[in-house]
Design the sequence.
DNA sequence: TATTGTTATACTCTATAACTATA
DNA sequence: TATAGTTATAGAGTATAACAATA
């Protein structure tokens, strides 16, 4: 069997661990879990409001997990929900002003961590790595041959 | 702020998700969680018995989490524990014959998934990606500048 | 005193199913 | 009937602290 440290999932996990190590304490300072941050971050990336289903796909969270996270973030005033006018089943989620402010507070450290990686690893090399990861994720490995 | 899909941790998570998607149902068939499998997999990679502390580092599990997982795996007869003769505080963990058999049962599907990725992504390209991930993980990003 | 490993505790996420409201 | 989202439930991992046994 392939050696443990040549396993692709382990290599991805290890790299992610290395990239996140410095960032986690910062999230903890703001009482945010990784998953909560992923949701806030995904909301920052969109122009307008997003439906929970879309948000779940983008953040790799299951609907029940996302549902709890949204309740939590709404309770803290970091997001706002509304109901879609064309289909009352659908919710629309967006950052509140407080949520946007929180992201703006955390973002600089995130960028600093990124810059640090760029400096040590090389900006072009990192860009290429991101492209490779993107391609890998798009192979549709779940589809039948 | 950097676009969400240009975030390195998200790119790593997304790639890992893609690589694991087909593998999870197989683990579920054998009543194994991802973390339990990581432990079994790490034990396969070593020649002899391993101390829990080392195992925790290699699998990115916290000691309390690992402790529970080891109890579970021991209860299922998949691993064996002994006490180090030179230091009675230390445990030594190794796969049991049943554990080895289970790994041998699951391994072919793991290899098949890997081969599939190699075919679609390119073997050399994948090898290079693994090396880049390895280098990235070894940047010691947690250290002060 | 320090270290190895486990236990305690509280919380969060995962995963599947069942349910409500709307379409 | 089907879909969007929430709630129910059980289980597992995360994280920190406290603890027992050994060094």
Sequence:
């Amino acid at each position: 069997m392939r050696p443990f440290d040549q396993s692709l999932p382990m290599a991805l996990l290890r790299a992610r661990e290395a990239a996140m190590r410095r960032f986690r304490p910062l999230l903890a300072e703001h009482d945010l879990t990784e998953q909560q941050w992923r949701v806030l971050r995904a909301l920052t990336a969109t122009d307008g409001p997003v439906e929970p289903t879309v948000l779940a796909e983008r953040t790799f969270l299951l609907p029940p997990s996302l549902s709890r996270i949204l309740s939590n973030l709404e309770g803290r005033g970091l997001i706002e929900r509304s109901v879609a006018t064309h289909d009352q089943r659908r919710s629309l989620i967006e950052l509140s002003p407080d949520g946007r402010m929180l992201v703006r507070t955390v973002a600089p450290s995130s960028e600093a961590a990124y810059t640090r990686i760029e400096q040590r690893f090389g900006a072009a090399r990192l860009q290429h790595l991101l492209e490779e990861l993107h391609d890998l994720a798009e192979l549709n490995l779940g589809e039948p041959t």
